Amino acid sequence: MEGSARLINCYAEQTGDDAKAPWTLYPSSGLDVWTTVPATGTSSGVTGVRAFLATDSYLYVVAGRNVTAIDALGVQTAIITLPGDGDVYLAANRRSPTPEVCLVSDGVGRIITGTSIATITDPDLPPPVAVSVLDGYFLFPTTFDRVFISDEDNGTSIQPLMFGRAQRRSDNTLLALGGERDAIVFGTDSIEWWNDSPDGSGNFPFVPLTNINMGCAGAKTVVQLDRTVAWIANDGTVRVLDGYSGARISTSAVERALSAATTTIYGYGWNEPDTGSSYLAWTCDTFTWVYNLRTAKWHERQSFRRSNYRGCQTVRWQGMTLMGDYQDGRIYRVSADVYDEGGEPIIMDVISPTIHNAPYGMRINAVYVDAVTGVGRGMLPADANPSLMLSTSSDGGQTFGAQRLIALGASGDRNRRLKTHRLGAFGPQGCTLKLSCSASVARALSGLNIDADRLSP
């Protein structure tokens, strides 16, 4: 009753002023298995794909403790099996024709060149906690809140005085991220921007510009997608970079979920050229919340028989949007033309706001649904004659009753009218409707109407 509306495995898209309804709900894009890499399990958190990085020649994948390079023909080369389970970071510099890829995990920095790997042995680099890159410099946050940099386009050489500290606030440094123009230094209580301003003297080239007294909840919550940078702030909100500030984009529902998380929250983002959407996502063992950058709307994702989404970490490579699996080494191709997740159904759930006639009760005589009809494909029984499943709740969406099936129609049956009758009587607290569809077919919902009578008090 206090607000029950939810979108699970579907997103809202604005349809324009000439449409019957201003918004249409479409199912989340499917996941088609592209390849599988070895994934030695980690002790906790993500046991599947933990990091991606794409270069012209290779796609680098960290799955479990295994690091694998995949070339353009799909040939896999094992690089290393990491000894620990710490968070993993990848970055590539501008060295040509083969860039250096820096891998940081468990306080050790390594340089991958092609399919060869070597540990950074320069004694001037303390144990790094992460890595990013800007203007050819690898940025290494390290102990004692220092950020070291490598030589330009040379990740194996670090000078003893080539480090800086966040100067405006003495908090714990989590990540130094290479932005479009500046380095963004994320701390637990503040964020500081540095500009690359070399003076030719060989001194540390980054100069502090400004800061804000808003920190970061964790380095792995930071998402960089094209020109967008977003993170979970230390006040429990989700923020997106807006100049030298962070604009709040999270809703109260998202913030409640974040505050209740008991495992590490990982952020990632991806573009879907076939739908025109760009997404930012934050996931852990118990939830996945997704923010659509185009519409500024949130929705949830839950894979089959799971409370979170199987997708974790994404990359754009060889014209494909690729997404790793949260639990194993499968890598998926994201596509709106795929209607399942690695062979498992995508259950699209739409839970309505509470419908009521307070202070009176009401009797719902009929429910009418505007949906794509005639989409049955005939591959499986559920696909040949797909149905919407409708159920009702009288307690604000906490529990739902038995499901009714409303046929979407076999292929070509596009004149079908979706309706169901006699849903019963409800008190002043109202009724919440839940529409679900698990068939692997094209489907969309653009409207829902009810025929109801007011009941006497």
Explain what the structure shows.
This protein is an all-beta fold and 457 residues long. The two termini are 19 Å apart. The strands form 11 sheets. Strands 1-34-39-36-37 form a 5-stranded antiparallel sheet, with no helix packed on it. It is elongated and about 85 Å long. It has 2 helices and 40 strands. The model has no long low-confidence stretch (mean pLDDT 93). It is 3% helix and 47% strand. The protein has 2 domains: 18-23 and 349-454, Jelly Rolls; 30-338, Methylamine Dehydrogenase, Chain H (7 Propeller).
Strand content: over 45%
What is the SS-derived class?
mainly beta
> How many E-type strands?
40
CATH class of the largest domain: Mainly Beta
Quickly list its features:
2 domains; Jelly Rolls; 40 strands; mainly beta; elongated; Methylamine Dehydrogenase, Chain H; four-stranded antiparallel beta sheet; 457 residues; single chain; 47% strand
